[in-house]
Amino acid sequence: MTLRKKQIIIISCIAVSVLTVILCVFFLMRRSSSSDSENPVYVNSVAAITGMDTGVASRFSGVVEPQQTIKIQKATDRTVQEIYVKAGDTVKKGDELFSYDTEETQLKLSEAQLELERLSGDITSLNNQIKYLENEKAQAPSSEAFSYTTQILTAQNDVKRAEYNKKSKEMEIEQIKKNLENATVTSEIDGIIKSVNDGTSTEVIYGMESDNAFITILSSNAYRIKGKINEQNMAMLSVGQPVIIHSRTDENATWQGSVSEIDMDNPVSSSNMYASSDTSSQSSSYYFYVELAEGTGSDLMLGQHVFMEPDMGQNDRKEGLWLSSAYLVTEGNDAYVWVSDDKDKLEKRKVSTGEYDADLDEYEITDGLTAEDYIAFPDASYEEGMPCTKNADVFMYDTPSGEAGEVLSDENVMGEEALPEEEGTGDDGMAPEDAASQEVVE
């Protein structure tokens, strides 16, 4: 073999070896890159982790209503003579509401008393007849005894029937006398007349719908808040849970309360106005009630619209940004967090810490991190530059678009004692968001 051929073979082997190495490195890099993209680092909002962003997305609309509602029905067999109140009037316990016409009732009493006297006379006559028949039977021959016995038994049955009718008539007279004594109906509570239905028109107050009661009185002694919750965000509230009530006009005006009842027995059917008409797009809502804490709510007004949100301690939150020590990576005297940068790549960022809360195991972050950042829980396998995926910050409730979790309309179901229509309130009962709140989950 010539020297030139040997050189060609050696050069070819070297070229093949270099190409093999390049291809191996290339495939290893692709594999590594593919692995990283398939297994991104999941990061969460600092605001969500620290509880700083409760927002108003979890607020429910509500209306102030009385703790007690009295509904007065008029007797169907009596005529109302005069009504002394109208919708919106304030009444005290014992105040006159309306009166019945007593002339007709007095006539009924007279007729009933005459009927009672007649029944008493019939009973006396029948008893005298029985005595006579018994005397005749004793003197009559045995062949006529059966006939007298039959007449006596018939008269005795007539006495029993008359005595029963007499007792019924006595009860009727007692009721008529009570009606005369109670010809004027008075209020059982201190309150406000919500509605008066005189048969020709119905007066109402506060934009509330009327009911079928003759007069409805709203108690003025104590208030409660009425809201509406959807079956898809039911987990957000429970009986006994503390809530914060916010004024719609003054964000600094708040009241404390707790959920006293969720009315699961009377669902309010609703459907998504943007979805199809099949049953899968329909859902039920339920009214819930918030009882005000003792000593609060005296400045609330009946019919006032408010916002409510679960009390998660947001009003007692410490100032500044406080982060659990579990998210910190310490190296000597320095502290770091794994942060998603503006290109959604993992970055090991140095932060400055301040005070330490031993009870909650939290550090105050004074520099290097904001509530808008997204961070990952530390892991030994992390390296800078790894791709990041942000977890959705679901503060309202995680549902498909068009269901609970998305404020869709300002329509509410109105009905007896129903929650009055709220601007921007959806069928789920959620309050509309403002600029201070987060985006609605789509």
Automatic annotation (TrEMBL):
Any coiled-coil regions, as ranges: 102-186
UniProt KW GTP-binding keyword: no
Domain YknX-like barrel-sandwich hybrid as annotated: residue spans: 79-204
GO CC terms of this entry: cell envelope
Location within or outside the cell: Cell envelope
Main localization of the protein described in the UniProt heading: other
Segments passing through the bilayer: 7-29
Keywords assigned: Coiled coil, Membrane, Transmembrane, Transmembrane helix
Domain YknX-like beta-barrel, first and last residues per copy: 224-309
Region (Disordered): 401-442
InterPro entries: Beta-barrel_YknX, BSH_YknX-like, UPF0194_transport
Name by which UniProt lists this protein: Efflux RND transporter periplasmic adaptor subunit
Lineage, uppermost ranks: Bacteria, Bacillati, Bacillota, Bacilli, Candidatus Onthocola
